[in-house]
Amino acid sequence: MRDIDRIVIHCTATKEGVDHSVEQVRDWHVNGRGFRDIGYHFFIRLDGTIDKGRPIEQAGAHAKGYNKHSIGVVYVGGLDSYGKPKDTRTVAQVHALRRCVETLKVIYGDVEVLGHRDLSVDLNGDGMISANEWMKACPCFDVKTEL
């Protein structure tokens, strides 16, 4: 079993209200980006269904420099109808995401839970990752205060 020290939350960066499947995103990653599998370990659809992605025994391909010891969880959405970052999670996705994280914490213990954007570099050295320092807005909500 891999040593896990964090759970990284992502969004698919797809438009609000448009559902996608784990198979579609796997295709984007394998055929579009050259990955050997989908980059995430868990995938949350609009209706709250949690699908398995990449086997958890394998390092993900979701957060460069952090994949070896992390689990990647993604929810469908993250963009408004104009393609701008927005927290688009449905009520079902909010509940499913909490349930998924709580289950993983039971299995892996006291792990850090953060959003992909929280892995950005602290450019001004103040010890915090501010919105102006985010490499991307993903997952479009504040994971540290919500999960």
Strand content: 15-25%
Query: How do the strands of the widest beta sheet line up side by side?
Result: 4-3-5-1-7
Classify the secondary structure makeup into a structural class.
alpha/beta
Mean pLDDT: 91
> Which CATH architecture is right?
3-Layer(aba) Sandwich
Within the CATH hierarchy, at the fold level, what is the topology?
Lysozyme-like
Describe this structure in words.
The protein has 147 residues and is an alpha/beta fold. It has a single domain, classed as Lysozyme-like. The chain is 23% helix and 18% strand. It is built from 3 helices and 7 strands, in the order E-E-H-E-E-E-E-H-E-H. The radius of gyration is 14 Å and the shape is globular. The two termini are 24 Å apart.
Record the SSE blueprint.
Blueprint lengths: L5 E6 L2 E2 L6 H12 L8 E3 L5 E3 L17 E6 L2 E2 L11 H18 L3 E4 L27 H4 L1
Parallel strand pairs: 1-5, 1-7, 2-6, 3-5
Antiparallel strand pairs: 3-4
Question: What's this entry about, in short?
Answer:
With 147 residues, the chain is α/β, with parallel strands linked by helices. The chain has 3 helices and 7 strands, in the order ββαββββαβα.
What attributes characterize this protein structure?
Lysozyme-like, two-stranded parallel ribbon, alpha/beta, 3 helices, five-stranded mixed sheet, 147 residues
